[in-house]
Design brief:
By secondary structure, this protein is of the alpha+beta class. The chain has 8 helices and 29 strands.
Length: 564
């Protein structure tokens, strides 16, 4: 190797040694500088603030210190609070530490890794990293010590309810761990100023799995009835969590509702404001009543909805009936309301209470609907006490007249019988027609036709108009009733001779409703004339006999059809 090359190599090694020694001396004499960046706390809620503390210090006197540089936007807005200078004695020299304090205001929700903070001192740059920070919503909190998650939520089953229609408001508290304190969380629900509020029974806590975690859930439920149309805002609900280090408050988001008025299209004329879904029923305390006496009709409205909007049903017009009421009964419940009406009939006969209709608005289907009851028959009977009073007050003198006529009639009948038995013919036979006797109905072959309930009834009805004097209504009514009862005994096996039993046996035999009502009306008129001294003309008797024969024929036709 040439000598020149060796010289260059030795010179280079010497230069490198001198440079390294110089750098070592500079490092020995340069002060040691420490920087730090600390964030507290590392888990906050949106709306809360965190604290950032920055410090720089060294072993020697530090001067010409510049403020650190950082930028956490857009996640956080940093607001400077104050800075401190702390002098101290270090190795017989005065050293100075600087501290800067900032307030971090979160601008978003999530987990954030903060960027490095740069310190500039005497031309040298030093860096410190504050780490990460978590920002939760106002409805969620995670305890840094236990890792427990606490959440609140408010929801409604509809955001577009109708006026006075119920909606369900539910406030839920979910948590993965129990609070490390003896105090319980305190829920604070909104005041609901524009609603009628109904508190529902508390639901026992239950578990729910969300994103792989098991939460306990506690619910507070209210039923709300909006009282105003338009846009209504439900204020946030809050929950106070009593931690040992201080209280933590969770808040739900506000809820906005749009309350709709009831539609005008399709509204029935009889609609009175009932909101919900309902059924109606009616019941009489008994199926008969004496004229002038009162009985109670109970009308019930039941279902689900706003029972405060339910009003008493309007009864249809009842001819000849005095209606009082309604009165609210004492057995009302949150799903049931009953009304009592007092009915006082003024006329005898068969009364029919028509169907009672009730209109309501069903918010679940957004339609008007009508429910109605079945018609109810009612038998109005004469009052025997009224008939007795009338006789004793106005017609007591007639008793002796009636008695004398009866004695005279019996004498005439006995004399006629004796006259007939002695072989004298009746001179009036060609004038007064009479029904053929059983012996006269014997055919030429000498065989007697069989007697049946219908033939017996028709024979008795044919003879009824000729055996009772025209001015005697009571014997006629009694005889007509007995003919009909006897026919029902032989044909339909009637067990008791009264109107209710007759109606029931006809119903069981599937007699038409028209025929049933005819029989009941005829028997009711018979009862009336049996007790009330009201005259009954010949035409009225003929009409009653004709109606009785028609009713018997209808029943016979039904029996004949069933036997085929």
């Amino acid at each position: 190797m040439p000598v020149a090359t060796w010289c260059v190599l030795l010179f280079t090694i010497f230069h490198l040694f001198v440079s390294a020694q110089a750098r070592r001396e500079v490092q020995t004499t340069s002060p040691v500088v420490n920087v730090a960046a600390v964030v507290k706390p590392r888990h906050i809620q949106f709306g809360e603030k965190a604290r950032l503390e920055l410090t720089i210090s060294g072993d020697t006197f530090i001067k010409h210190i510049k403020a650190p540089k950082f930028n956490f936007l857009p996640a956080f807005l940093a607001v400077p609070l104050h800075s401190d200078t702390v002098p101290r004695l270090k190795s017989d020299q005065i050293a100075v530490s600087m501290a800067w304090v900032y307030e971090l205001i979160p601008q978003a929700i999530g987990d954030f890794s903060l960027s490095d903070i740069q310190f500039d001192y005497q031309g040298s740059f030093y860096f410190a990293n504050p780490g990460s920070i978590r920002v939760s919503g106002t409805d969620t909190y995670q305890d840094a010590l236990t890792g427990g998650i606490h959440q609140v939520e408010a929801e409604v089953n509809t955001t577009s309810p109708y006026l006075n229609a119920p909606l369900t408001y539910t406030f839920s508290y979910r948590y993965t761990t129990i609070l490390p304190t003896r105090q319980s969380p305190i829920p604070r629900l909104p005041a609901f100023p524009d609603f009628i509020v109904e508190e529902l029974p508390t639901v026992p806590p239950y578990t729910q799995h969300i994103q792989g975690k098991t939460f306990w859930v506690e619910e507070h439920v209210r039923k709300l009835y909006p009282q105003k149309n338009g846009r209504l805002v439900l204020d946030p609900a809050a929950l106070d969590l009593p931690f040992p280090q201080g209280r933590k408050t969770l808040k739900t988001a506000p809820l906005t509702l749009t309350v709709q008025p009831l539609p005008e299209i399709g509204k029935p004329p009889q609609f009175s404001g009932a909101i919900g879904e309902y059924q109606i029923s009616a019941q009489l305390e008994r199926s008969w009543v004496q004229v002038g006496s009162a009985l109670t009709l109970i009308v019930r409205v039941s279902g689900r909805g706003n029972m405060r909007t339910v009003t008493p049903p309007t009864l249809p017009a009842l001819t000849g009936v005095i209606v009082n009421g309604p009165n609210i009964t004492s057995d009302a419940t949150p799903t049931h309301q009953a009304y009592a009406y007092t009915l006082t009939p003024a006329l005898t006969g068969t009364l029919r209470i028509p169907s009672i209709s009730y209109a309501y608005f069903d918010p679940s289907r957004a339609v008007y609907a009508t429910t109605q009851t079945d018609p109810i028959p009612l038998s109005v009977r004469p009052n025997p006490n009224d008939a007795v009073d009338l006789e004793t007050e106005d017609t007591s003198w007639k008793f002796w007249v009636v008695l004398a006529l009866a004695i005279l009639l019996v004498g005439v009948l006995i004399a006629g019988f004796i006259w007939y038995r002695t072989g004298f013919a009746n001179p009036f036979a060609s004038i007064v027609p009479r029904a053929a006797t059983r012996a006269e109905r014997v055919p030429d072959n000498g065989e007697m036709p069989p007697e049946t309930p219908v033939t017996q009834a028709h024979t008795a009805l044919a003879e009824l108009g000729h055996n009772v004097p025209p001015n005697e209504a009571t014997p006629f009514a009694n005889a007509l009733a007995q003919i009909l009862y006897q026919y029902l005994v032989g044909t339909l096996a009637l067990s008791q001779r009264n109107i209710d039993a007759a109606r029931e046996v006809c119903l069981q035999a599937e007699v038409s409703e028209h025929t049933r009502e005819e029989l009941v009306d005829i028997l009711t008129k018979c009862d009336y004339h049996r007790f009330a001294p009201v005259p009954l003309s010949t035409d009225e008797r003929k009409k009653l006999i004709a109606r009785a024969e028609a009713a018997i024929n209808d029943i016979e036709n039904l029996q004949h059809t069933e036997n085929k």
